[in-house]
Amino acid sequence: MNGVGAPGVSSGGGGGGSGSARCSITKLIVVSTAIFLAVGRPVTVLIAVGALNGLILPIGLAAMLIASRKTTLLNGYVHSRMLTAAGAVVALAMAALGAYAVGAELVRLVR
Predict the structure, then answer these.
(1) Could you tell me the residue ranges of all domains in the chain?
(2) Which helix (H) or strand (E) holds 53?
């Protein structure tokens, strides 16, 4: 081993990572377990959370499309209007499907 690895990841031995990172991970596990116990259906919760994640992708795509029109960010590159329009259509479709999925999964989660 040359000791090169991901930050905060131990390459063997004990420990690895900072104390605050361990505390945050522990809190995440405790909160997640509490939610799963309260709802009682972990698979349904995971599917609902996946549906919520489906709303993040169109936001990221929209941000990239806006940034692609800023020539100062891209050293003079100009993203074509046709590609931007096609990306906008895709982002809107993804947002609509994501909203539908969130609505359907939240209804299933509440039942």
Answers:
(1) 40-110
(2) helix 42-53
